[in-house]
Design a protein that fits this description.
single chain; mainly alpha; 6 helices; 0% strand; globular
Length: 144
């Protein structure tokens, strides 16, 4: 992570991340993250804007979308608290809690909806996935 020069902490964090990524939850969440990141990156390039201005749950149309909002909110705090406490296993647990809601979202929801406000909100929701997972590591750098 940028700005972190404590090798002991970096090794501890890297080991926790490695253990998480070889688990079923880690593998599946990484796939969901990459899918979210790819859709978001393509939309940002195409639209010429950055979708990082905060999604709003009031525009959520599907139950899986609402569940993802709730899961991201819960996980963001849990991950942040765990990282501050240098409890990287707990931080990975916070990410693991996102696996099912991310999977359900992609199974049930079309991000590029016809209604522009819904589309923009969903793209901002994908940005929130990227932000929450980014607390732990830059998952875009992980080869799968």
């Amino acid at each position: 992570m940028a700005g972190n020069d404590d090798l002991t902490l970096l090794v501890k964090r890297a080991r926790a991340l490695e253990d998480f990524l070889v688990s079923e939850d880690g593998t599946n969440l990484l796939q969901g993250f990459k899918r979210a990141n790819n859709i978001l990156t393509q939309a940002e390039e195409k639209d010429g804007v950055e979708y990082s201005y905060g999604a709003d749950a009031k525009f959520a149309k599907h139950e899986s979308e609402k569940a993802l909002f709730a899961a991201l909110e819960a996980s963001e705090g849990a991950i942040s608290t765990a990282i501050e406490a240098e409890d990287f296993a707990a931080a990975m647990g916070g990410m693991a809690a996102l696996r099912a809601p991310v999977d359900a979202f992609f199974e049930a929801v079309q991000v590029n909806a016809e209604k522009e406000v819904v589309r923009r909100n969903r793209l901002n929701l994908l940005s929130h996935i990227r932000k929450v997972c980014g607390q732990v590591a830059d998952l875009t750098r992980i080869e799968a």
